[in-house]
Specification:
Layout lengths: L1 E10 L2 E6 L5 E5 L6 H13 L19 E9 L2 E10 L2 E6 L2 E2 L4 H6 L2 E4 L5 H4 L2 H15 L3 H20 L4 H4 L3 H34 L3 E6 L8 H7 L1 H7 L10 E6 L2 E2 H4 L2 H22 L5 E4 L2 H4 L2 H12 L4 E6 L12 E6 L2 E4 L1
Parallel strand pairs: 3-13, 3-14, 8-12, 12-13
Antiparallel strand pairs: 1-2, 1-4, 4-5, 5-6, 6-7, 9-10, 10-11, 14-15
Helix pairs in contact: 4-7, 4-11, 5-7, 7-11, 11-13
The structure holds adenosine-5'-triphosphate and magnesium ion (MG).
The site of magnesium ion (MG) has 3 residues, from helix 1.
Length: about 350
Amino acid sequence: MTLRRLQVTDFRCLQRIDLVPDPDFTFICGANASGKTSLLEAIYLLGRGRSFRTRRLDPIFRRGAERFVVFGEAKAGDRDVPLGVEGSTTGLRARIDGRNAASLAELALALPTQIIDPEVHKLIEEGPGRRRRFLDWGVFHVEQGFVNHWQKYQQALRQRNAALKARQPQAITTVWDTELVRHGESISAARSRYVEILLPHTREVGRRLLGRDVSLSLRSGWQKGLGLEAALQQSWNADRERGSTLVGPQRAELLVQVDGVTAKDEVSRGQQKLLAAALLLAQLKLFGTESAARPVLLLDDPAAELDSRHLGLLMDEVRTLPLQLFVTSLSEKVDALGTPGTRVRIDSGNLVSF
Ligand SMILES: Nc1ncnc2c1ncn2[C@@H]1O[C@H](COP(=O)(O)OP(=O)(O)OP(=O)(O)O)[C@@H](O)[C@H]1O
Ligand SMILES: [Mg+2]
């Protein structure tokens, strides 16, 4: 897919933006607080159905506005598919190709989007939730049935947790276990397969960006060697005490190691950024081997985050990938980043060509 057109209305500081991105590389420069990250956030919303900065909608509405719209046209084959996400007081609504999207996950198929931003180190530093989301984005794109298992699992988990909270008897609470086991085992198996095929790409990119051995392994979220059914039974007393289900793929952990040591305990902040970028680029590399679609990669001010040698290494790696690139920068100087097909400057939320 290629984003051919982008219109943003009343989104953060952007009142009205109309951009025709380059199919390969669009460069966006601007001073602090000019709206660069907001523009990337709008593209991300179109490809993910959520922001990378907030889980809430209200900070996104331009101050005073009650509605925001991000509209795009994504080229799929020889067709331009219209995509739209609208935020209003009733929530978020997505339209794809002239119809309402059944779920926001549909957007991810229409416009696969990744971001490397100044917060990227959180992928390594923070708890397992971000790493699970990272993993699931990848699995989603290579395993057809994954979304269905994921949605069914979440539904059953919500019901089971509600029963636990209401202190329902075991016979009622565990009614959901069959669904949990069926979908939970499938989610976990799909994640394992994905980690296996992602690992060689991670090693390769990690070696080039960090000069070290980067490895990945998955902990399923329940005791090794035990099926999920047995793990749920074993956890019953603890679940009842805590009022929530303590085993299952919602507790999975993707372990990231550098030279055999858990990454977050060992590497510097700068290395965490490179490592997280290596994971994301490895994922995009794998994406390229599994799918004919070109993903969108958003790089938010990489020059401010990395020294010139590592920035060069990152950009060399990015250039090997089949993707549509958007890069922001404080500076107009673009040399270290490559040759953009389109350059724009953003000034107080407005685009100016230069
Ligand atoms: N809901 C909103 N309505 C209006 N303005 C907003 C809203 N949310 C954020 N802003 C403002 O938008 C401006 C641009 O923010 P943004 O993060 O996009 O800037 P930036 O160009 O990425 O800056 P930096 O270089 O510092 O990262 C900021 O001044 C911010 O306060
Ligand atoms: Mg910014």
